[in-house]
Write a structure and sequence with these properties.
about 325 residues; alpha+beta; Thrombin, subunit H; 8-stranded antiparallel β-sheet; 14 strands; about 25% strand; EC 3.4.21.10; Trypsin_dom; protease; serine-type endopeptidase activity
């Protein structure tokens, strides 16, 4: 009986440093995060176990230099969920990109942080740039990630989960800001209101741009912004102290404007696609047959990696020479 209890406890808590798998949504945020004082954006404290499923996707990685582009969430030991538009017009091979997990600061390093290269990028085959239809993608990592207090899996709602009944919803990211944040490189979190799609699509709100594959969330003064794309929108389960990731941050009209909530891709809508893609054998990713858009969406909160690998290396080599010259002059 004692052995059985221990096994159940391990299953509920997850392995301290074992390969991720089976357990999800245990600690998306700090236990005291639900109060109204966090609305508007607050720092995620290091070591709090908060947002343990979130990851930073870097288009350039050569420590101590890296360039954050998008957020993502770990949904399996070797798979990351993010937005498709993070990879439009990329300037260097995807194999040179990196995924950083377990960090709350972009410059953080240490035993709690894991870095992986990207083995495979899968963009939804019906993704349409500019319109941002089917704005969802998967990254297969080069090797599995071990679970720990700072790294755990996000929970995706299947068809039977009643997403509309979920409460206490939150967003997180390292973007320009979750509005009114400090602007530093520390992960930000904020409580948001999920807006019914019918209201979100009305003439006073987003005027016909919202479809079944979207989720709207945010309010005036609170929401996601540039660099938060691909990150999670999560809501608390009615049946326990864990959270479902109901959205992947996609686009928005400005940042946190009244009646202009941020728009996420619905993870429930794409649940079957996500499961199918993770089971699919590796293959050459086909180039989507894009159609000419009939309309153009407002600006989305994301830009591709702004510099090529060569430009970044040249810049930092030049910076190194300048610092060396200044040091010689001083001494």
């Amino acid at each position: 009986m004692i052995l059985l209890c221990i096994l159940i406890l391990l299953a509920l808590c997850g392995s301290a440093h074992g390969t991720c798998g089976g357990i999800c949504g245990l600690r998306p945020m700090h236990a005291t995060f639900g109060s109204s004082r966090v609305v508007g954006g607050t720092d995620v404290l290091p070591g709090s176990g908060a947002w343990a499923g979130i990851a930073s996707i870097r288009c350039f990685w050569k420590p101590p230099i890296s360039v954050h582009v998008c957020g993502g969430t770990l949904i399996d030991a070797q798979w990351l969920l993010t937005a498709a538009h993070c990879f439009t017009n990329i300037t260097n091979p995807i194999s040179e990109w990196a995924v950083v997990l377990g960090a709350t600061s972009l410059g953080q390093s240490g035993h709690e942080v894991e870095v992986r290269r990207i083995k495979r990028l899968i963009i939804h085959e019906l993704y349409v740039p500019k319109l941002e239809y089917n704005d969802i993608a998967l990254l297969e990592l080069d090797r599995p990630v071990p679970c720990s207090s700072s790294i755990q899996l996000a929970c995706l709602p299947g068809p039977t989960v009643k997403v509309s009944e979920l409460k206490n919803c939150y967003v997180a990211g390292w973007g320009d800001r979750i509005v009114k944040s400090s602007g530093r490189d520390i992960l930000q979190q904020a409580k948001v209101q999920v807006v019914n799609n019918k209201l979100c699509n009305s003439s006073d709100w987003l005027q016909g741009y919202i479809y079944d594959f979207h989720v709207c969330a945010g309010q005036g003064g609170v929401g996601t912004c540039q660099g938060d794309s691909g990150g999670p929108l999560v809501c608390q389960s009615k049946h326990g102290d864990f959270f479902w990731q109901i959205g992947v941050t996609s686009w928005g009209v400005g940042c946190a404007r009244p009646k202009r909530p941020a728009v996420s891709s619905s993870t429930q809508y794409y649940y079957s696609w996500i499961q199918a893609m993770m089971r699919k054998k590796p293959a050459v990713t086909p180039v989507p047959a894009y159609t000419t858009p009939l309309q153009t969406l407002p600006p989305k909160p994301m830009q591709p990696c702004p510099f090529s690998r060569e430009k970044l290396l040249n810049f930092f080599n030049l910076l190194k020479e300048i610092l060396k010259f200044l040091k010689e002059k001083m001494f």
